[in-house]
Amino acid sequence: MTNGTVAMGRPTLEQVAQHAGVSRATVSRVVNGSPTVAEPIRAAVERAISELGYVPNQAARSLVTQRTDSFALILPEWTTRVFSDDQLFPGVIRGVGQEMEAADKQLVLMLAGSAASHDRIERYALARHVDGVLIASMHGADPLPGTLARMGVPVVCGGRPLGRARVPYVDVDNVNGARQAVRHLLDTGRSRIATIAGPQDMVAGIDRLTGYREELRDSDRRSIVAVGDFTRDSGAVAMKQLLQDDPQLDAVFVASDLMANGAIRVLREQGRRVPDDVAVVGFDDIELARYTEPALTTIRQPIDGLGREMARQLLRLAGGETIPDQVVLPTELVVRASA
């Protein structure tokens, strides 16, 4: 160091200490957030860091703090599904990313569409490359959340985990949302109400079918069910099946907007007017719902809000706070032309 300036190259901890007139150990404590440093000394060190442009070595810092300041969002899906046009995954990722950015944390996105990738991600998380894990879009009784939680990795799930894993989760009120959809169809005079349910290895598919059946049972109507996989094509196939099973149906509750879009296409092809002959209600309220022809009545779920709340809960848990076992976000009926 000469005349208060640093030689070219990345500033070191020792140079910061000399510039601030303190020991290397004191600079290290300030960098690692120790509360034991007096405020005037902390201010001097922070001023030296700013003036020299010092950037802490994250690897070395992690050895001291035992933290990486990184968190993983794991989606047990294939890349083609995550980056399709259903807009759900981008919304969740956006919400998680906003909260992590606000907390000055790094987000790592990991896709686990195969058994091999699932095992690789489990090893990565257990090696403590991240400070905590979010898992969304789970299929079946996925053992990953329970395995990580038992090994001490902070975990929060997006959606209620199936099986015995006792892991905190954030979800939307799928059952009540489905009941709202069917109640709306009943209130508008529809009597033969079918449903295109989501996959029955996912909690959203299970709970939305449960809500549909509960509302119909309370009104003494019978269930008419076909099952899709939340994609547009599966909605089209399921709609054809429903029309074969009950040609007189006059309404359909569809467990995702993408499937509803496929269903409306089939209804149009088979000469059924929407909503005159068959009313349609979807679920999600993705952007596509506003541009479907006719515009889609649907159940709005807070997609970005789900991601933000998942991230908030994980940051609290990783920080040593106690968090609730479950957070359930409300849904809302949005009435448009299709019903």
TrEMBL record:
Database matches in Gene3D superfamilies: 3.40.50.2300, lambda repressor-like DNA-binding domains
Pfam families in the record: LacI (PF00356), Peripla_BP_3 (PF13377)
Domain of life according to the entry: Bacteria
Signal peptide: none
Keywords: DNA-binding, Transcription, Transcription regulation
Residues of the HTH lacI-type domain: 11-65
Record bears the keyword Transcription: yes
Record protein name field: LacI family transcriptional regulator
